[in-house]
């Protein structure tokens, strides 16, 4: 039994080291965000301050970048979720011989480095807007939205597809037998069924867009997004303001993750209660049937 | 003629090909309702326009145009589409020889950067697999539900912190005045600070750190679907632990392993933020060189050629992974 115990201790050490590696740098950075020296410093703790957070909100470029990133994120959600939905539905309807080729095309952006997506978007739209006389479309925000949409739509499609594959076709057939038209089936049966998937796709799309740097840095042209401003600041040198920003993001993530967890637990409990109730009802029905 | 006009014809060919395939499959499909009958005109149009715009204008045309541009010379705007706008290999020649005309000397800086980027990415990918596999296995097979939730929560929190900020966090740790150097000096182990960033330790740690979670989630998902009874059965039959992993868990988790490795490799070779923040003065990474072609030298055809080389490296990696594991693309990209 001692070897089992030894193994367990070794494993505990490994898990501790893993999380120290994963979370340690973030904790250290968070500490430096509250320390007074000009350079992000953890030790010695010279004094507690929240000035660095204040400077963050006074930094106009950063705030402008933040607003631009919000806009880009919202536009990406508006484009990627409908495209992802359409992509998933087409996947279930397309002729089987064409399906693998179609899959290759629409999934390829997920496996392409973001820089290359950014580059190809910029070079193509520069030429396209030039020859079609639509120069006003050659704009950093529009290009960034287009570039990010290529792979974020694919994420959305994969999420929708995962749920679509569990869709019970007989529901659709029942509706059709009862005289519903195909568009009605789409609007009143398929869409409500896909709603949770569409919601998670929207959240994921926004978050992926908001934190994207690789595609954005090429496609943003002369505009500024939060990540490109941030990259510029980091390149100029380290200041605790950057630590403060990261700490804010980590804080927001923790709150969001815990809220999600709590909501999910509540949902799970409800689902379990409903299941138990359903089983009881079934048993009651059965006992009635046998009694008769 | 400007090449974009030719390229714009490509979607027409593609649509024709799809239409033809649908036609050829006609007899089998004739019992099913047609596309517009099936979806109604409005929704049918929405599906076609959304998917068509995405596939053609967002995915295919930009990529094809980029490849075309990489085989063109750099010309002033007035001469584009003129007699001098011909296909050429000069951008690729520049990558190899550092000159568009002469082939006397090799362009070692760029060649070195390209291959060391790929080699380092492969090493980091394998390293991340080794780091993540035990935890993924534990989470998927033996963790209790309560502790699993805590573990997942702890993993998700750093997941949404941006690349740049993660790299910055490591810089706070690893710089010459950083925490680790302070600790080493405090313990009396070093008399002078070690420059981790110049020695590329910072860069490699940063890349491994940034993409750790992209390895662990696919692994976890793949191992989770393995039936616990299979492992129990093997153990009962006396299989040693490494047998269980190499012959039962890993073959089952192959799609997850392949997709984790592909993602980590792809993100490493294409990383821009991490080399920028954690690279030392002598660090050679390929993406900053590509970036400079565009926004320092404004030589877009050359930049396109460099980007295409990087893309080819990734395609080659994916193909190798598919060949080694015997999987299909659909099993990796999920």
Tell me about this structure.
The complex is a heterodimer of chains A (292) and B (334). With 292 residues, chain A is mainly α. Chain A has a domain at 61-237: MetI-like fold, CATH 1.10.3720. Helix content of chain A is 82%, strand content 0%. Chain A contains eleven helices and no strands. The N and C termini of chain A lie far apart (58 Å). The mean pLDDT of chain A is 87. Chain B has 334 residues and is mainly alpha-helical. Chain B has two domains: 3-70; 108-332, Orthogonal Bundle (MetI-like fold), CATH 1.10.3720. Helix content of chain B is 73%, strand content 0%. Chain B is built from 18 helices and no strands. Chain B has helices at residues 3-24, 26-29, 35-39, 41-70, 90-97, 108-142, 145-159, 163-174, 179-186, 201-210, 212-224, 228-236, 241-252, 254-269, 273-278, 286-295, 300-325, 329-332. In chain B, helix 11 (212-224) runs antiparallel to helix 14 and helix 14 (254-269) runs antiparallel to helix 17 (300-325). The model of chain B has no long low-confidence stretch (mean pLDDT 87). The interface between A and B is large, with 91 and 93 residues.
Keywords:
heterodimer, A: 292 residues, mainly alpha, MetI-like fold, 11 helices, 82% helix, B: 334 residues, 73% helix
Computed Rg of chain A: 26 Å
Could you tell me the CATH topology label of the domain at 61-237 in chain A: MetI-like fold
Question: Rg of chain B, please?
Answer: 25 Å
CATH class of the domain at 61-237 in chain A: Mainly Alpha
Output the number of helix runs of chain B.
18
Number of domains of chain B: 2
The percent range for helix content of chain B is over 70%
Helix-and-strand structural type of chain B: mainly alpha
Distance between the termini of chain A: 58 Å
SSE class of chain A = mainly alpha
């Amino acid at each position: 039994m001692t070897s089992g115990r030894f193994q367990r201790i070794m494993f505990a050490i490994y898990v501790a080291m893993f999380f120290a590696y994963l979370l340690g740098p973030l904790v250290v950075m968070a500490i430096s965000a509250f320390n007074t020296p000009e350079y992000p410093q953890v030790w010695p703790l010279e004094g507690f301050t929240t000035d660095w957070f204040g400077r963050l909100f006074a930094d106009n470029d950063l705030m402008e970048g933040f607003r631009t990133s919000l806009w880009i994120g919202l536009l990406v959600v508006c484009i990627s979720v409908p495209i992802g939905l359409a992509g998933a539905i087409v996947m279930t309807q397309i002729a089987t011989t064409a399906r693998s080729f179609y899959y290759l095309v629409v999934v390829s952006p997920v496996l392409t480095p973001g820089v290359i997506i950014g580059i190809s978007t910029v070079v193509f739209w520069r030429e396209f807007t030039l020859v079609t006389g639509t120069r006003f479309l050659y704009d950093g925000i529009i290009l960034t939205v287009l570039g990010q949409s290529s792979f974020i739509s694919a994420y959305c499609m994969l999420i929708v597809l995962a749920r679509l594959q569990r869709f019970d076709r007989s529901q659709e057939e029942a509706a059709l037998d009862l005289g519903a038209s195909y568009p009605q089936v789409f609007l009143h049966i398929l869409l409500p069924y896909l709603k949770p998937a569409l919601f998670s796709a929207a959240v994921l799309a926004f978050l992926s867009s908001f934190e994207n740097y690789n595609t954005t840095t090429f496609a943003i042209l002369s505009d500024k997004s939060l990540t490109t401003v941030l990259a510029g600041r980091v390149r100029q040198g380290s200041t605790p303001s950057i630590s403060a920003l990261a700490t804010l993001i980590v804080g927001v993530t923790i709150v969001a993750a815990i809220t999600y967890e709590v909501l999910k637990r509540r949902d799970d409990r409800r689902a379990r209660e409903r299941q138990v109730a359903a089983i009881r009802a079934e048993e009651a029905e059965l006992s009635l049937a046998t009694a008769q | 003629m400007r090449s974009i006009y030719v390229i714009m014809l490509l979607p027409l060919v593609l649509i024709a090909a799809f239409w033809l395939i649908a036609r050829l499959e006609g007899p089998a499909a004739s019992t099913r309702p047609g596309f517009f009958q099936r979806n109604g005109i409005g929704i049918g149009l929405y599906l076609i326009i959304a998917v068509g715009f995405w596939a053609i204008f967002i995915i295919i045309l930009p990529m094809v145009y980029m490849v075309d541009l990489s085989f063109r010379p750099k010309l002033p705007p007035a001469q584009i589409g003129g007699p001098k706008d011909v296909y050429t290999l000069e951008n690729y020649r520049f990558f190899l020889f550092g000159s568009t005309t002469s082939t006397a000397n090799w362009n070692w800086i760029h060649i070195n950067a390209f291959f060391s980027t790929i080699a380092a990415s492969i090493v980091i990918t394998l390293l991340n697999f080794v780091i993540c596999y035990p935890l993924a296995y534990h989470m998927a097979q033996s963790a209790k539900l309560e502790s699993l939730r805590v573990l997942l929560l702890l993993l998700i929190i750093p997941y949404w912190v941006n690349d740049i900020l993660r790299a910055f966090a490591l810089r706070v740790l690893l710089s010459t005045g950083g925490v680790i150097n302070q600790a080493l000096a405090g313990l009396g182990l070093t008399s002078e600070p070690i420059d981790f960033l110049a020695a590329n330790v910072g860069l490699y740690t940063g890349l491994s750190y940034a993409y750790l979670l992209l390895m662990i989630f696919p692994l976890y998902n793949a191992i989770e679907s393995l039936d616990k009874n299979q492992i129990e059965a093997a153990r009962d039959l006396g299989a040693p632990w490494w047998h269980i992993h190499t012959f039962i868990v890993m073959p089952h988790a192959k799609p997850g392993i392949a997709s984790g490795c592909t993602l980590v490799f792809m993100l490493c070779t294409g990383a821009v933020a991490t080399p920028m923040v954690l690279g030392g003065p002598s660090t050679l990474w390929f993406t900053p060189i590509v970036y400079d072609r565009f926004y320092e030298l404004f030589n877009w055809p050359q930049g396109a050629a460099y980007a295409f080389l990087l893309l080819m490296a990734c395609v080659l990696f994916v193909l190798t992974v598919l060949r080694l594991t015997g999987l299909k693309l659909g099993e990796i990209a999920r």
